[in-house]
Design brief:
483 residues; mainly alpha; 20 helices; 75% helix; globular; cell membrane
């Protein structure tokens, strides 16, 4: 890393430092913006003092990023079409990254200032969609070429369904607790500064820390993905591929590419029919500088095999040749995804998915220092700015104040929902899962809902995506003209 920095000219070095600084600022803002979602019920129910709760939440967010993996990170990254991902080492790619980060920071900070539990996930995804569509307009391409809509629909469903799950399951869990726990003190709002009964206090603390851990894992990965785009764009010879990939894993990548060559050759007639029928869209001439459509998959596969036959590991590949290999891998993977959708055999689809995971291994990674930096930014940010949203969660969603059992129900469901999403590699909104969980417990308890607050939260939920899309598109046009 230090050797690579020494080789950069002053302008590029400043650009790299500025880009990384903005990316880490996004994670810092994400931390203090979303802190209340993890600590609101713990603080409000007096299970922990505010300072203790916030510090512990920051530590758990830090650990969540370290332990969370990178599946969600690349789920976010692959919302962008392949043509943008293979041009990320250009001014166009840098304009894309700047647009995403600045849009997300501005919207996050604005909604935090207003005390609205808006979603960082919605913000970032909206900015990505806006950038993709703006790039399509800029290049004169149809809207369908601007975004990876297959991935966008998958991510959109996870963001839409998760709050519904939070509402229903948290309400159901509260009803169960009301039947099992007969102590009336557990179902009343906190009285003064007295802490909850010991067992309930432990449940609140553990579930609150669990939400923080899950939040760090899910939201921290988004920052990891953005930083990797920056590093790949500015230092492609170092970061475009995982140089730590072992010779054995490198050989598996080559074997996967060879298997795809056999697969596409065997299905050539079916591919031609799919083009003729419109099942596979003809690639617009301006969509990319490389041939990333299904018909170009065999050429990409053969290029991968040829390059990896010359070198036994990624580290042995000259820095100047790594970008070409990365481009071939992304193009082949995109073609395989299209063919996977056309396959009628479940066994064949499963085999293609396994081959794709193997093929993408050199391109989907993050160095440990990146994960550590994001962990610190998110963890420190979590320790700041929690007060504005805690009152909204504790007092303004329901017509009565939050009880111990309601807080525990909402937190346990949020922890489980976000943890499941992490396992599936899907981004979800910690904000909306927990807020909807609190609303679900209020509805189940028949304590009534404050519709004014819910309308504000719903408006933030509805308008965050289009607002972030407009911000992302606007900044993309601005930065492409400037860079």
């Amino acid at each position: 890393m230090l050797q690579s920095l020494a080789s950069l000219d002053g302008h590029t070095l400043i650009l790299l430092c500025l880009s990384l600084g903005i990316a880490l600022a996004f994670e810092f803002v994400n931390g203090f913006h979303d802190t209340a979602n993890a600590v609101a019920t713990v603080i409000y129910t007096k299970a922990l003092r505010a300072t203790t709760a916030v510090v512990l939440s920051g530590i758990c967010n830090f650990l969540g990023v370290l332990l969370g993996g990178i599946a969600v990170a690349y789920s976010i990254v692959h919302l962008l079409p392949v043509d943008l991902l293979v041009s990320v080492n250009s001014n166009l790619g840098l304009a894309m990254v700047f647009s995403l980060l600045v849009s997300a920071i501005l919207w996050n900070f604005g909604t935090w200032y207003l005390g609205l539990p808006a979603s960082s996930s919605h913000t970032l995804i909206g900015a990505i969609l806006g950038v993709g569509l703006a790039n399509a307009v800029r290049e004169g391409l149809p809207a369908g070429a601007g975004v990876n809509w297959h991935k966008a629909i998958e991510v959109g469903l996870s963001l839409f369904i998760s709050p519904i799950i939070g509402f229903v399951l948290a309400g159901g869990l509260l009803l169960l607790l009301q039947r099992l726990l007969k102590n009336p003190a557990l179902h009343r709002p906190p009285q003064g500064d007295a802490p909850p009964p010991p067992a309930m206090r432990a449940a609140l603390i553990l579930s609150g820390l669990g939400v923080s851990l899950a939040h760090g894992s899910n939201d921290g990965q988004k920052g990891v993905g953005l930083i990797m785009l920056i590093l790949i764009g500015i230092l492609p010879g170092v970061y475009s591929l995982d140089a730590d990939l072992s010779p054995g894993e490198t050989a598996m990548v080559r074997q996967a590419a060879a298997r795809f060559t056999d697969y596409f050759d065997a299905h050539r007639l079916e591919i031609d029919k799919a083009y003729a029928s419109g099942a596979i869209r003809e690639l617009p001439e301006k969509a990319s500088a490389v041939n990333c459509d299904v018909r170009g998959a065999v050429a990409a596969s053969e290029d991968i095999q040829r390059q990896l036959a010359l070198y036994d590991s990624i580290a042995a590949i000259p820095a100047g040749e790594r970008w070409e290999l990365r481009t071939d891998i992304l193009c082949l993977d995109d073609a395989a995804r299209i063919m996977q959708g056309l396959s009628g055999s479940a066994a064949e689809r499963a085999e293609i998915e396994q081959l794709r995971e193997t093929l993408r291994r050199p391109t989907e990674y993050a160095p440990s220092w990146v994960i550590m930096a994001v962990s610190l930014a998110l963890g420190v940010g979590t320790m700041v700015g929690w007060k504005r949203i805690v009152v909204t969660i504790g007092e303004k969603i329901g017509k009565t104040k939050l009880s111990y059992a309601q807080g525990a129900s909402a937190q346990i469901v949020a922890m489980a929902t976000i943890g499941l999403a992490d396992g599936l590699g899907l981004p979800v909104s910690t904000t909306h899962v927990l807020s909807s969980g609190v609303a679900g417990t209020m509805a189940a308890h028949k304590s009534g809902l404050q519709m004014r607050t819910l309308r504000s939260i719903a408006m933030a939920w509805v308008f965050t995506l289009p607002a972030a899309m407009l911000l992302g598109a606007g900044f993309f046009f601005l930065f492409t003209a400037w860079l």
